[in-house]
Write a structure and sequence with these properties.
This protein is of the alpha+beta class. The protein folds into three domains: 7-65, OB fold (Dihydrolipoamide Acetyltransferase, E2P), CATH 2.40.50.140; 98-114 and 279-444, Vaccinia Virus protein VP39 (Rossmann fold), CATH 3.40.50.150; 122-263, OB fold (Dihydrolipoamide Acetyltransferase, E2P). The chain contains ten helices and 21 strands. It has helices at residues 73-76, 86-101, 158-174, 216-226, 280-294, 311-316, 330-342, 355-364, 383-392, 404-415, and strands spanning 7-14, 20-24, 27-31, 39-47, 50-60, 122-129, 135-140, 147-148, 188-195, 202-208, 230-237, 250-254, 259-263, 266-270, 301-305, 322-327, 348-352, 371-374, 396-401, 419-427, 437-444. It starts with 6 loop residues before the first strand and ends in a 6-residue tail after the last strand. The structure holds S-adenosylmethionine. This is 23S rRNA (Uracil1939-C5)-methyltransferase.
């Protein structure tokens, strides 16, 4: 830092990743953590292909600056909006959706949280050693393979933070080696902790080099004694060179191999490999709003695509005459079928299939649904799915997305089939990050907004 030139700059706006943008030598430079209107001293640095600014000091502060800031925020990269107060975060998300869809009308006010501390109910930590050889666990520093020992993350369930700290202590005591991806030596690679929001049940998944993990027995026993909410412990084997956390093979060593949680008055079983919203408290807000927008009646035949463990499918079944859920992940479909039974829903069917293939086949046999719900992964859907959907002509489409950019792309595709945006509703599922969840209600006919 000593030899670096210091510049005095003022941020103009935020970019889509929530970084302050300053105009510099005829180009725009992002400065993470700097807010619009703020004057700061910065140095420039390169990260990958990008030149960024690092704040040395803020000369004039924005009134939108957050008061309490996490000490890891500059390094971790997990919370891009760490410097913004919550009200300004919601305003940022609202404006992002309005700008992307080029409409202000019909974008409902983003639904935020009263208290977002510890909202993440899916927590993952990797294990390694620090410079002094001590075992540490945490997340990888942004764009690197260095572990940051973040054991006090404010947005993670505090019980998960405490369990991870305890695992590190036990690893030292019982000489359990962290797994080294480069040498292939060691045992414990990651831990995945999922917790139910309403039930409080905790699932601990040890991601290990091999399922033969004798020291895991004492580790599991000690953890259960200290954290009686642990309902199940699973070993998952992953000794591949991969950025994926979970491997293929696993074994339940304590409890039923899943946890349960409650959403919208219904019970859901969740297995290690099944998708479940990381913020279950807001998931209830999201699903309730989606149902309100869909206005389902007993006359409706509903198709819920990319349905995971059947959360939306089964909530929709409370209002609709008949509902089918489609999902590719076998473990999620198994959970979904059990969840239908747990919630006494016998007018629901789950199909394990690629959503696009299912749509094509359903459309080919003129199977008609009055409402199609879609909630694809971040990458969005694809032309095969969207063409079949357009030809199927449901009255309403509810498109839920955690990536409004791919959602907008897909919505534009559906316009050629006469669909128009009736309403957009952002929901803040990921406070302090730049991630945005958005519901779009599409109908055939004239565009209502603008
Ligand atoms: C964002 S999650 C939504 C899950 C569910 N709607 C919920 O709210 O819990 C997306 C889901 O799509 C599934 N998925 C991914 N690709 C798929 C495909 N080609 N066909 C069907 N499902 C797919 C994933 O396994 C995941 O469960």
């Amino acid at each position: 830092m000593k030899n670096k030139k210091v510049y005095r700059v003022r941020a103009k706006s935020l970019d889509s990743q929530g970084r302050g943008v300053v105009s510099f030598n005829h180009s725009m430079i992002p400065v993470p953590g700097l807010l619009p209107g703020e004057l700061a001293q910065i140095v420039l640095y390169r990260k990958g292909d990008e030149t960024l600014g690092r704040i040395l000091s803020i000369v004039e502060k924005s009134g939108e600056r957050a008061e309490a800031v996490c000490s890891w925020s500059q390094k971790c990269g997990g919370c891009q909006l760490w410097s913004l107060n919550y009200e300004a975060q919601l305003k940022f998300k609202q404006e992002q959706v309005a700008r992307l869809f080029n409409t202000v009308k019909n974008v409902g006010s983003v639904l935020g949280m009263d208290d977002f501390a510890g909202y993440r109910h899916k927590v993952h930590a990797s294990f390694g050693r620090d410079g002094k050889g001590r075992i540490i666990a945490g997340i990888y520093e942004e764009h690197s393979h260095r572990i940051l020992p973040v054991t006090d993350c404010r947005i993670q369930d505090p019980r998960a933070n405490a369990i991870i700290e305890e695992i590190c202590r036990e690893m030292e005591e019982y000489k359990i080696q962290p797994y080294d991806e480069d040498t292939g030596r060691g045992m414990l690679r990651h831990v995945l902790i999922r917790s139910g929001y309403k039930t409080g049940q905790i699932m601990v998944v040890f991601v290990v080099a091999t399922l033969n993990f004798p020291k895991g027995a004492v580790l599991g026993k000690n953890l259960r004694k200290k954290f009686p909410d642990i309902r199940t412990i699973v070993y998952n084997q992953n000794n591949k060179k991969t950025s994926m956390v979970l491997g293929k093979d696993q074994e339940t060593i304590f409890g039923p191999g899943y946890i349960e949680d409650e959403l919208c008055g219904m019970t859901f079983q969740i297995s290690p490999k099944s998708f479940y919203q990381v913020n279950p408290k807001q998931a209830e807000v999201l699903y309730t709003k989606a149902m309100e927008m869909a206005k389902l009646t007993k006359q409706d035949r509903v198709l819920d695509t990319y349905c995971g463990t059947g959360t939306i499918t089964l909530i929709a079944a409370k209002y609709a005459g008949e509902v089918t859920g489609v999902e590719l992940n076998r473990s999620a479909v198994e959970d979904a079928r059990i969840n239908a039974g747990k919630n006494h829903m016998d007018h629901v069917t789950f199909v394990c299939a690629d959503a696009a293939r299912y749509m094509e086949q359903a459309q080919a046999v003129s199977s008609r649904y009055s409402v199609v719900i879609m909630d694809p992964p971040r990458s969005g859907s694809n032309p095969v799915f969207l063409n079949a959907l357009g030809k199927m002509k449901p009255d309403r489409i509810i498109y839920i997305s955690c990536n409004p950019a791919t959602q907008k792309r897909d919505v534009d595709f559906l316009k050629r089939y006469g669909y128009r945006i009736d309403a957009l509703q952002p929901v803040d599922m990921f406070p302090v990050t730049a991630e945005i969840e958005n519901i779009a209600l599409l109908r055939r006919g004239r565009e209502k907004h603008k």
